[in-house]
Design goal:
Layout: H1 2-17, H2 25-32, H3 39-55, H4 60-68, H5 71-84, H6 90-93, H7 103-116, H8 119-125, H9 160-198, H10 213-220, H11 222-270, H12 290-321, H13 327-349, H14 353-357, E1 366-367, H15 378-384, E2 389-390, H16 392-425
Helix pairs in contact: 1-11, 2-7, 3-5, 3-7, 7-11, 10-11
């Protein structure tokens, strides 16, 4: 028990040294037993780790966001981010949005995040020396208000000559600024060379024979040496904690297995908990679409199985005969394939617009003479006809309706084409459009 407590204390030190808020190891123990006192610290810790994974550091903006956002906004944000990263636990999604309960589920979510996103490994990758060659941190630079660049006037207010003059002015200003930057860079290089030349044959680094700018700065200002020593000691402690964690993390993951066992045991004894309120319904795949997806999968699988043997046969034929095939044979094969594809599309998707105009002739009707009987009505007579037999009058009426519809469509197209020809003839001078003479029927 003491060993796991030391390991958790080490984890809290690692987290704290990388910018998270100060969380106690006791919160982890309380969360294992689903104590509500550990709920808010764990929500806060998961929020900070997600912020670190998104932006690479935990800065003042994350602290201000956690304090200014409402409790419900923080909970919803954490749930959505965890789902985007692949954590689809229903128990976690059903946690109340007021941070009132669910510490054990939060602990399991924290363990998943540490493992899945390799948070500790990212801490190690971002390790860098606090001492850098840049001396800007030793100088207090006043905030200089940079004026906004001059904006171009609207095009409607400038004529072409003024636009060219304005562009020339901007170009000249840009060249002047670039020359200023180049002069500053040359001056910096001269000063750096002067420092290196003045400290020649004096060095604390075996790879160099002179002092660096930082070393000269600390020699000039001895108080900075004590400050940098403190930074180095703190960074050394952080690295030592990371190394110790890599040696002891197996103990933590075994303890997390006991947390999961405790959750499963509570489910078997008390039954699965249900929270009807405050549930997050932001799942990537809606439950009602599973049936549709399965049906689409079955249709695609059936189509693939149906045409797989045909494709294999065509590939074998092509392998054998591609040395002897001619352009004519290739055109015939392509035409046959296009015809087969058109037929299959017609069978799958229907006849389209043609089905609404032309009657289906797949099964030709069989006509038969049936004398009119005065004692039975038309409706009863239609019911007494044999299967596959239709009245010739009904068929004639249907054909007449089809002819009238086609005639109406032809007349409309004729009018449209006449109008188009008339519009085209107006574009040519000394041209008269004479419509064709009507055909005698």
């Amino acid at each position: 028990m003491a060993q796991i407590r030391d390991t958790i204390e080490l984890l809290t030190k690692v987290l704290r040294s990388n910018g998270t808020h100060k969380i106690k190891a006791e919160a982890f123990r309380l969360a294992k037993f689903d104590n509500d006192d550990a709920v808010e610290p764990l929500w806060h810790l998961i929020f900070e780790l997600i912020y670190y994974m998104k932006y690479g550091s935990i800065d003042e903006l994350s602290i201000r966001a956690f304090t200014e956002l409402s409790i419900e906004e923080i909970v919803v944000f954490v749930k959505r981010e965890m789902q985007r990263r692949g954590f689809f636990s229903r128990d976690f999604a059903h946690l109340p949005n007021d941070m009132s309960s669910g510490s054990r589920e939060l602990l399991l979510a924290l363990g998943w995040l540490l493992c899945k996103e390799a948070v500790i490994e990212r801490f190690m990758e971002n390790c860098a020396s606090p001492l850098e060659e840049d001396t800007a941190s030793f100088h207090q630079i006043a905030d200089i208000e940079v004026p906004s660049p001059r904006q171009l006037s609207p095009r409607s207010q400038l004529n072409p000559v003024e636009k060219v003059k304005q562009l020339l002015w901007l170009n000249g200003k840009l060249r002047m600024n670039l020359r200023g930057l180049f002069a500053i860079q040359r001056e910096r290089t001269k000063l750096l060379h002067k420092i290196n030349q003045s400290t020649q044959s004096v060095s604390v680094d075996p790879d160099r024979n002179h002092l660096s700018v930082l070393e000269v700065m600390m020699l000039k200002h001895p108080e900075l040496l004590k400050k940098n020593l403190q930074l180095l000691e703190r960074d050394n402690d952080r690295l030592q904690n990371l190394l110790k964690w890599k040696e002891q993390e197996d103990i933590f993951w075994k303890w997390m297995e006991s947390v999961l066992d405790a959750k499963l045991q509570s489910i078997t004894t008390k039954g699965p908990s249900s929270n009807p309120g405050n549930q997050l319904q932001d799942w990537s795949v809606p439950p009602d679409s599973i049936t549709t997806l399965k049906q689409a999968h079955d249709r695609v699988q059936h189509a693939v199985t149906k045409y797989e043997s045909i494709v294999d046969h065509l590939e074998r034929l092509w392998t054998v005969k591609r040395q002897h095939v001619t352009q004519t044979d290739l055109d015939e094969v392509l035409a046959a394939i296009d015809l087969e594809i058109s037929l299959q599309q017609g069978n799958i998707g229907g006849m389209g617009d043609a089905a609404a105009v032309l009657p289906k002739r797949l099964n030709e009707p069989r006509f038969s003479y049936v004398p009119d009987l005065p004692e039975r009505s038309t409706s009863h007579g239609a019911q007494l006809m044999p299967d596959g037999v239709r009245d010739i009058k009904d068929e004639i009426g249907m054909l007449q309706q089809l002819v009238h519809g086609l005639q109406h469509e032809i007349n409309g197209k004729q009018d449209w084409y006449k109008q188009e020809m008339q519009n085209l003839s107006e574009n040519f001078e000394e041209t008269v459009c004479i419509p064709p003479m009507a055909r005698k029927v």
